[in-house]
Design a protein that fits this description.
The protein has about 650 residues and is α/β, with parallel strands linked by helices. The protein folds into five domains: about 100 residues, Glutaredoxin, CATH 3.40.30; about 210 residues, Rossmann fold (3-Layer(aba) Sandwich), CATH 3.40.50.11540; about 80 residues, Roll (Ubiquitin-like (UB roll)), CATH 3.10.20; about 90 residues, NADH-ubiquinone oxidoreductase 51kDa subunit, iron-sulphur binding domain (de novo design (two linked rop proteins)); about 80 residues, Alpha-Beta Plaits (2-Layer Sandwich), CATH 3.30.70. It has 26 helices and 19 strands. The strands form six sheets. The protein has a five-stranded mixed sheet with strand order 12-11-15-13-14. A four-stranded mixed sheet has the order 2-1-3-4, with helices on one face. Strands 9-8-7-10 form a four-stranded parallel sheet, with helices on both faces. Strand 8, helix 12 and strand 9 form a beta-alpha-beta unit. Helix 7 packs across helix 14, helix 18 runs antiparallel to helix 19 and helix 19 runs antiparallel to helix 20. The chain starts with 8 loop residues before the first helix and ends with a helix.
Length: about 650
């Protein structure tokens, strides 16, 4: 459909009717997830195979194809959904495509092996929304990703896209828009949870022109990719929210700060901006209202600290992305010392929903202090990993067990970290905690941008805290002493503890440093960087004490505190550990009990991994002496025992 500039909301409504009328909802349609994760698992090759097969069978006119953004169940990609039946296939390969076209598109038959199968029962789900991972979610912000080709604005318009913007420009004053957002109690989804409406109001009332509005798509938390997936899959929703915010604040220039490592998001955003300009949703005299607004894209260099508001604004100005002292908030003096309003991708994406459905509708979802839904990146030792959108107030247990399918390998849940590297680690006793801004803060953690890492019993909490401190130490800009030196000193202490060099007073020193960092650091990175340590000291102090006082790692993880040895009575002389040891530290032979030379052992754990599970003669121990080796004269194994071991191997 040729694009012509729209000059009113009425013209937009007429265009939407034409687009919808031109679509046959009964026509077979294939949608293929093409987010970053599915790209990594081969969606490009699957798309090429679909096109080739449709041409081969003469079905290019009869069957539609749409490449959408991320569907969320990333570990099971590429994901393919066939409409109108809504049949969902997971882990599709190019080799599956001929059968999909012949059997499902033409023959209307289900291919069982490509359906989701429940791990415990084997029960299969035909439709995407019947899969437990999706079934227990409430998808509002993320919903459009399932149906929209992000490079085609017509898909967004068909689903009501830019309807909220037209409503604002036709019916509401900037003050009325501002009041609606304030009444909705929308809190920023980027980390701090500050009320978006209050921030908008501060920027609007601040002295100085021009005013700027900014989208934060930096998202530096390891394992978090909510903003990336929204920007890849539905960039128009973010642009619509940003334009509405600009109208309310009185801004005529916006920026989208996207980290350089998000090439698909950058590409799809660029296409969306050009399309929005063609239709008149950006630029001069938007929808004939007299309101002017333009957007520029700034590619971030990838520094974690640049996600902090003042550091991000420094980067937009072309300076080093490091924080400024916040004697004056960026909402009053931000980019080029002008009033600047920064919200993250998910926050802006909520705005069109609030305007279209009203503040009362938004307030009906969530908890008293946290309204709406939140998208989490559910990762770690959980069966179903991916992006999860749930109402605020959903419990950790519901997210991890109903949606996530429980702990991988049937292991015991130990803790969950929320809020990214600067978040806290929450133990099992709080699994029934409703997840919202205030409850997570009360537990010593935070919402952050939405990272959620599930941790099982085989994870060492002290080593985990060391890992996050090490990451933050490298990512600190180094501008202020409490953060720079505090993180370095914390890292030194934790490295000593996991290496068996911990000493009395280390725990108290970690607590003291953490409290100073919280009070005296320049920016939010520094004030929250101690959370992994302080929260683990609060809930897992016994593990720290075991490392320091007993030189023991309860999880059997810390390399310097564990040893491997072979139980003589269980060894069947299978030779697997001997053959696989990279250092030649194991002696033995066919009929001889194997022995590990502790002087040569580098504690790589290969012997433990290759030892047959039914035998499990290789043991990991910590905090106790290694039993003395079996004397040579006693190492001979009876013939029947060796034969029994051979039968086990077969």
């Amino acid at each position: 459909m040729p694009r012509t500039r729209l000059n009113s909301g009425q013209e937009l409504r007429e265009l939407r009717r034409k687009i919808v009328a031109g679509r046959d909802l009964n026509k077979p349609f294939i949608t293929l997830c093409s987010g970053t994760a599915c790209h990594a698992t081969g969606s490009d090759a699957v798309a090429a195979a679909i096109q080739e097969e449709l041409e081969k069978q003469g079905l290019t006119e009869q069957v539609g194809v749409r490449r959408t953004g991320c569907h969320g169940f990333c570990e099971r990609g590429p994901i393919l959904v066939i409409y109108p039946e809504e049949i969902c296939y997971l882990g599709v390969t190019p080799e599956d495509v001929p059968e999909i076209v012949s059997e499902t598109i033409k023959g209307k038959r289900i291919i069982e092996r490509l359906l989701y199968a429940e791990p415990s029962t084997g029960e299969r789900s035909v439709h995407e929304q019947d899969i437990p991972f999706y079934k227990h979610q409430t998808r509002l912000v993320f919903k459009g990703n399932l149906w929209i080709d992000p490079t085609k604005i017509e898909d967004y318009l068909a689903l009501g896209g830019y309807k909220a913007l037209a409503k604002v420009l036709e019916e509401k004053t900037p003050e009325e828009v501002l009041e609606e957002v304030k009444r909705a109690n929308l809190r920023g989804r980027g980390g701090g949870g500050f009320p978006a409406g209050r921030k908008w109001e501060t920027t609007r009332n601040a002295a100085g022109e021009p005013k700027y509005v900014i989208v934060n798509c930096d998202e530096g938390d390891p394992g978090a990719y909510m903003d990336r997936s929204i920007m890849e899959g539905n960039p128009h929703r973010v642009l619509e929210g940003l334009t509405i915010g600009a109208y309310a604040i009185g801004s005529h220039q916006g920026f989208v700060y996207v980290r350089q490592e998000y090439p698909i998001a950058i590409a799809n955003l660029g296409v969306a901006i050009e399309q929005a300009k063609e239709y008149g949703f950006l630029g001069e005299n938007i929808l004939g209202s007299g309101f002017n607004f333009d957007v520029k894209v700034h590619r971030g260099a990838g520094a974690f600290v640049s996600g902090e508001s003042s550091a991000l604004m420094n980067a937009i100005e072309g300076k080093v992305g490091e924080p400024r002292p916040k004697y004056i908030h960026t909402s009053e003096s931000g980019v080029w010392d002008k009033p600047s309003n920064l919200n993250n991708v998910e926050t802006w994406a909520n705005v069109p929903l609030i305007i279209a459905k009203g503040a009362d509708w938004f307030n009906s979802i969530g908890t008293e202090g946290s309204k709406g839904t939140k998208i989490f990146s559910l990762v770690g030792t959980v069966n179903n990993t991916g992006l999860v959108e749930v109402p605020m107030g959903t419990t950790l247990r519901e997210i991890i067990y109903k949606i996530g399918g429980g702990i991988r390998g049937g292991k015991r849940f130990k803790s969950v970290q929320t809020g990214g590297p600067s978040g806290g680690i929450i133990p099992e006793q709080f699994l029934d905690t409703p997840v919202d801004f205030d409850e997570l803060t009360r537990l010593g953690s935070m919402m952050g941008s939405g990272g959620m890492i599930v941790i099982d019993e085989e994870t060492c909490i002290v080593d985990l805290a060391r890992y996050f401190v090490d990451f933050l130490c490298d990512e600190s800009c180094g501008k202020c002493v409490p953060c720079r030196e505090g993180l370095r000193r914390m890292r030194e202490i934790l490295e000593g503890v996991v290496a068996g060099r911990g000493k009395e007073g280390d725990i108290e020193m970690l607590e003291e440093i953490g409290e100073v960092m919280k009070k005296a650091s320049l920016c939010a990175l520094g004030t929250t960087a101690a959370n992994p340590v302080l929260s683990t000291l609060r809930y897992f102090r016994d593990e720290y004490e075991a490392h320091i006082a007993e030189k023991r790692c309860p999880a059997l993880v810390c390399k310097d505190l564990i040893s491997y040895y072979i139980e003589p009575e269980k060894c069947v002389a299978c030779l697997l550990c001997l053959k696989n040891c990279p250092e030649g530290a194991i002696s033995g032979g066919k009929k001889k009990v194997h022995v590990i030379d502790q002087e040569k052992c580098i504690k790589c754990g290969i012997c433990f991994d290759v030892c047959p599970p039914k035998v499990r003669a290789v043991k990991k121990i910590s905090g106790v002496p290694v039993p003395p080796p079996v004397p040579e004269a006693e190492r001979e194994i009876e013939r029947r025992k060796v034969r029994s071991g051979g039968e086990r191997r077969r």
